[in-house]
Design goal:
The protein is an alpha+beta fold and 222 residues long. The protein has two domains: 88 residues, Glutaredoxin; 117 residues, Up-down Bundle (Glutathione S-transferase Yfyf (Class Pi), Chain A, domain 2), CATH 1.20.1050.10. Helix content is 55%, strand content 9%. The protein is built from seven helices and four strands, in the order E-H-E-E-E-H-H-H-H-H-H. It has a four-stranded mixed beta sheet with strand order 2-1-3-4, covered by helices on one side. Strand 1, helix 1 and strand 2 form a beta-alpha-beta unit. It starts with a strand and ends in a 7-residue tail after the last helix. GO terms for molecular function: glutathione transferase activity; peroxidase activity. This is glutathione transferase. It is an enzyme of class 2 (transferase). Its EC number is 2.5.1.18.
Length: 222
């Protein structure tokens, strides 16, 4: 039986959703973040040395990294579904967005979270003005412009068909869901009509709703 090692409020929600779309039976082992640090518990290191989620075990295979897991799942269980035909322009777009999600979209979102943490850090009162200035400088000087650039680019790309790889829903849309949900949660991505419409479409999918029911809390802390 395939097992998903699922951390609350994490990228592993995408894996549950993909499995529900595929109709694959699976087990879940749930892990909770530390309430103080919001990090994954040490128990995850027994599954994968980095101690991060998602991790999937399938027979003798242990797989980490969202994109690699999704590609494995559609290749192993998809029977041609959720991936464009090889050799087509849609397949090139599919490959691009599968990598773009974590390689390009997530870094500025993580920096936005870091800036928010810095601004809200508990420090002596005489240091706080400096800390807030550093956080504001990071936000306005780099993070904000980068997020605006990426969200504008993504919105324009979605304008064509509403999906990321051709005119049909694919695993690339699952992969791109997390940065856009995170962006809507804390960076204003939903201000773009095409991004807002994309999120509404995926949230309405029955498989997405089933994944939420199985995975539990998903408020997108990180």
């Amino acid at each position: 039986m395939l097992t998903v090692h699922h951390l609350d409020n994490s990228r592993s929600q995408r894996v549950l959703w993909m499995l529900e779309e595929l109709g694959v039976e699976y087990d879940i082992v749930k892990y909770q973040r530390d309430k103080e640090t919001m990090l994954a518990p040490p128990a995850l290191r027994a599954v994968h040395p980095l101690g991060k989620s998602p991790v999937v075990t399938d027979g003798e295979h242990t797989l980490a990294e969202s994109g690699a897991i999704l590609e494995y799942l559609v290749e192993q269980y998809g029977d041609g579904r959720f991936v464009p035909a090889r050799g087509t322009p849609a397949h090139l777009r599919y490959r691009y967005w599968m990598h773009y999600a974590e390689g390009s979209a997530m870094p500025p979102l993580l920096l936005a979270l870091v800036a928010q943490r810095i601004a809200g850090a508990k420090v002596p009162f005489f240091v706080k003005p400096v800390v807030r200035k550093v956080a504001a400088s990071l936000e306005s000087g780099f993070v904000g412009p980068q997020l605006a650039l990426h969200f504008g680019y993504i919105a324009k790309e979605l304008d064509a068909t509403g999906w990321f790889a051709g005119d049909a829903f694919t695993a690339a849309d699952v992969q791109m869901s997390f940065p856009l949900e995170a962006g809507a949660k804390r960076a204003g991505a939903q201000k773009h009509p095409s991004i807002r419409a994309f999120l509404e479409r995926i949230h309405a999918r029955p498989a997405y709703q089933r994944a939420l029911a199985r995975g539990g809390e998903y408020t997108l802390f990180g």
